[in-house]
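Section: protein folds

Sequence with per-residue tokens
===
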Amino acid sequence: MECLKVFQLELETVEKKKDELDAIVARAPSWQFPLDGDRIMLLDESKTKHIGWLGHKLASHLIMSEKTPFAAKERLSKDGVKFEDVKLDTDLAEGQYLCYYIVTLT
């Protein structure tokens, strides 16, 4: 892996499980990824990004998730999560969307 310069790990969940993902991310600074020889890759915490987006609910098993994704988006926004602009399908009702939470580690 001597050619590897940057490694990004993207972790995604629904907004309702944000606290679970944040608990995992809190442990990330201790993660070490062995490379060749004695080199190891460590997390650069200054490059960690928290984003969110509203998307179509794709699977019926996600019914347990947020019933009002726009309220979930508001909660994430209050936590400082930036939202990507995603064009929503105007033919879908609010209940057919989910609010997703993503953390990118570099």
